User: Which sequence fits this backbone?
């Protein structure tokens, strides 16, 4: 039996995790649940006879103490947005392995997050479907020299004019059902941008060795190119169950039929290019990964502020990318050596983005 803690228990990833454990009777013991304010958390905690914590109105120290008193073999961090960074660092400092869905932790924490993990002797195992796929492919093919990340292209890939886009249209993702923030990011392809940066830090690849291809069906989760020129990929229907459960099990559970089978008698797979002018946030993310320093942080924070403003009807859809690009016009050169350095850039870039909105 493997013990786990679930942070973001009521969200899309948290719920998929709990559903899989219950329905597939997986050999996990849930030691505790954390969410922000959803009262459903208490009911879930009762079902699993475990303690829970609601972070609304709480401090980082409360989370740290909760994690410390309910230690587990591995912690799933499925908190949405930049709030996930402190949670990831707490888990790492408590010397627990981290199954990381919160990609923002990697984009914000960058090399610092991984050096903290090394210092504490813990593993960071990605849950993001593309990175889970890449993690396993790189393990199988250590001579991987290029990563090809697939992108669904979101709801607007075939729509050139996005000026009148409504929240409802932007939340209507063609292949995945996810939380609101990541769904909007999947429409602008900022999500793919965050994932390019995530892959850069996770696997230590330069921006030039990470490609993005638009694959509308979300069945091929990513591809690697190895030294001899061959490509290898992982194919499953779009479902987060496998990436979540394989990260949590980390090779310690015998996972049988976690995914639905694919029907190879009737399957069309397409791969297309993406346009820098149509999706400027993906192009901007590449440049942030090349420059590193404070740039990925500024990208993440300005995008988060802009997406929240769009979701609360304060700005139009097209303003999201304008705001991020304007914030990235500023100089984000900074040595990032500790949490304080990260927080300084987070705060400054958030402020710039807020100014752009008002
Ligand atoms: P959701 O919005 O569906 O869920 C977010 C969860 O985080 C909720 O349980 C929420 O609690 C909790 N939460 C929010 N803020 C805090 C906080 N400050 N402290 C503690 N808990 C908090 O998000 P998703 O599940 O879609 O995404 C979660 C993460 O996983 C994101 O980083 C996303 O990018 C990543 N991811 C998601 C995928 C998906 O398929 N959904 C795929 C790949 C990556 P409450 O309900 O109480 O507000
Ligand atoms: Mg993904």
Assistant:
């Amino acid at each position: 039996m493997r013990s786990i803690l679930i942070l973001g228990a009521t969200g899309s990833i948290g719920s998929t995790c709990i559903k899989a454990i219950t329905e597939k009777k997986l050999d996990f013991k849930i030691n505790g649940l954390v969410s922000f304010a959803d009262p459903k958390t208490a009911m879930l905690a009762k079902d699993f006879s475990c303690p829970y914590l609601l972070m609304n109105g709480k401090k980082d120290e409360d989370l740290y103490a909760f994690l410390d008193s309910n230690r587990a073999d591995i912690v799933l961090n499925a908190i949405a947005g930049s709030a996930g960074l402190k949670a990831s660092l707490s888990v790492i400092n408590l010397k627990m392995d981290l199954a990381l869905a919160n990609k923002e932790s990697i984009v914000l924490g960058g090399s610092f997050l991984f050096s903290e993990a090394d210092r504490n002797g813990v593993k960071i195992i990605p849950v993001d479907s593309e990175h889970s796929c890449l993690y396993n492919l790189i393990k199988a093919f250590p001579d991987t020299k290029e990563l090809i990340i697939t992108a669904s292209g979101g709801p607007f890939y075939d729509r050139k004019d996005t000026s009148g886009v409504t929240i409802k249209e932007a939340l209507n993702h063609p292949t995945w059902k996810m939380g609101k923030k990541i769904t909007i990011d999947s429409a602008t392809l900022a999500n793919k941008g965050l994932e390019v940066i995530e892959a850069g830090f996770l696997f230590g690849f330069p921006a030039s060795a990470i490609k993005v291809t638009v694959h509308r069906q979300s069945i091929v989760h990513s591809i690697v190119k190895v030294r001899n020129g061959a490509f290898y990929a992982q194919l499953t229907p779009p479902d987060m169950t496998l990436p979540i459960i394989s990260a949590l099990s980390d090779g310690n559970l015998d996972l049988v039929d976690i995914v639905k089978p694919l029907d190879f008698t009737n399957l069309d797979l397409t791969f297309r290019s993406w346009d820098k002018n149509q999706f400027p946030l993906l192009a901007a993310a590449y440049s942030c990964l090349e420059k590193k320093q404070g740039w990925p942080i500024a990208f993440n924070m300005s995008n988060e502020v802009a997406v929240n403003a769009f979701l609360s009807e304060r700005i139009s859809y097209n303003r999201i990318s304008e705001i991020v690009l304007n914030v990235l016009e500023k100089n984000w050169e900074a040595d990032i050596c500790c949490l304080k350095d990260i927080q300084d850039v987070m705060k400054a870039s958030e402020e710039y983005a807020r100014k752009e909105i008002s």
User: Anything to note?
Assistant: The two ends are 52 Å apart (CA to CA). Residues 4 and 72 are 5 Å apart (CA to CA). The pocket of magnesium ion (ligand 2) is lined by residues 128-130, 195 (CB under 6 Å).
